[in-house]
Design brief:
This is Phenazine antibiotic biosynthesis protein. With 353 residues, the chain is α/β, with parallel strands linked by helices. It has helices at residues 6-10, 20-32, 39-45, 52-55, 111-125, 144-155, 167-171, 177-194, 204-211, 214-223, 236-246, and strands spanning 92-95, 105-108, 134-137, 160-162, 199-202, 226-229, 251-258, 262-265, 273-274, 281-286, 298-306, 311-324, 334-340. The chain is 31% helix and 21% strand. It has a 6-stranded mixed beta sheet with strand order 4-3-5-6-7-8, with helices on both faces. A 5-stranded antiparallel beta sheet has the order 9-13-12-11-10. Strands 1-2 form a two-stranded antiparallel ribbon. The protein is globular and about 60 Å long.
């Protein structure tokens, strides 16, 4: 039975999620209805050369919307809150990493908690044990990853240990990256020596730096069951080295994602292919003209986000990736071999996170 209202589709149980086109129509009806939409989209709708509710039939129409990424850098956060949440709704506010300019802001009114429940399911599919303590070597504060994975750990019954980690500070002076990685690993060592960590969350640069420390490799190998890696991209060679030579007895699970899009965990048993939280997130791999590349070809990552919290269509990311076919009939495309694109100044959009 199709959802009876936009809210029913946007909050559908995981076992009864609508198809992508139904989700698109529900998101458009929710966000462009004056009774439920946000002031941000109500204002922007006046400048659109089409009627979103009448003219948007499905995912193919999402490219008609402008990329609003730059607006998210300065818009008052109250203007992003949909009226459908009620006048008393108070959002959490998170920011992007700021790699390509001033950070973009989003509001969290339940989507990332919903995503955490979905990641929890995905980790079960990978065979990750429940209830074990986590050590999170990543950013918290304005970065949504700390909130999301802290929620995942709580759902799985595991304490969530953290470290001091500020990726923006080190990006200001790339020559300090090695020293900063050492600083984070010193904190990690203390946690690993005093707690029996079951799940280690870390970025690829941290894992590579850790691999150069035999004492830490021994600590991780002796207690950690699973390494969840995320943040910046990792090459196939780096992942093979970490998986087969440095941590051969530790399960590695990758999670691609960002503040705007959401999360795309690695598919179980299929190499390093990431799959988004469909139909809330749609990932496309496109050529310079914005057309989808054939399966097996590389292109730029373009994402569309549709939830009750926010509607963020047609967002072109900095990443390049290879388009992969769905893992099941009617499922979403996957992507693999993710790398960071070169910015306009010729600098690789990379860092410690």
């Amino acid at each position: 039975m199709p959802p009876s209202s936009p809210e029913d589709a946007l909050r559908a149980p995981f076992d009864a999620l609508p198809d992508v086109d139904t989700m698109v129509r529900a998101a458009v009806r929710w966000h462009f209805d004056p009774r439920t939409g946000s002031p941000f989209w109500q204002d922007l709708a006046r400048s659109l050369p089409f009627d979103p509710v009448a003219d948007v039939a499905g995912a193919a129409d999402l490219v008609r919307f402008p990329d609003v990424g730059d607006h998210l850098r300065t818009v008052p956060v109250r203007d992003l809150v949909p009226k459908g949440f009620g006048a008393s709704a108070v959002p959490l506010v998170f920011e992007s990493g700021g790699t390509t300019g001033a950070p973009k802001r989003i509001v969290e009114l339940g989507f990332w908690r919903r995503t955490a429940h979905w990641i929890d399911r995905c980790l079960d599919e990978h065979g990750v044990p429940r209830a074990g303590p986590w050590l999170y070597l990543g950013p918290t504060g304005p970065h949504v990853a700390g909130y999301a994975f802290g929620t995942v750990a709580a759902l799985r019954g595991g304490p969530f240990c953290t470290v001091d980690f500020d990726p923006r500070w080190v990006k200001r002076n790339p020559r300090q990256i090695v020293a900063y990685l050492d600083y984070v690993l010193e904190q990690a060592e203390w946690a690993l020596r005093t707690q029996r960590i079951a799940v280690l969350w870390a970025t690829p640069p941290l894992l590579v730096a850790l691999a150069d420390r035999p004492d830490l490799v021994d600590l991780v190998s002796s207690t950690v069951d699973t390494i969840v890696w995320s943040g910046v991209a990792a090459s196939a060679e780096t992942l093979h080295l970490l998986d087969h030579e440095v941590f051969p007895d530790v399960r590695l699970v990758g999670v691609y994602g960002n503040t705007v899009m959401g999360a795309a965990p690695q598919r179980p048993g299929e190499g390093c292919v990431f799959e988004p939280f469909s139909p809330h997130s749609v990932i496309e791999v496109v050529d310079p003209d914005g057309r989808a590349v054939p399966y097996g070809e590389r292109g730029r990552v373009r994402v569309h986000h549709m939830s009750a919290d926010m509607f963020l269509p047609n967002m072109v990311e900095r990443d390049l990736a290879t388009r992969c076919p769905p893992s099941r009939p009617g499922g979403p495309d996957g992507l693999s071999d993710v790398t960071s694109a070169v910015c306009s100044d010729g600098v690789l959009a990379q860092g410690v996170y």
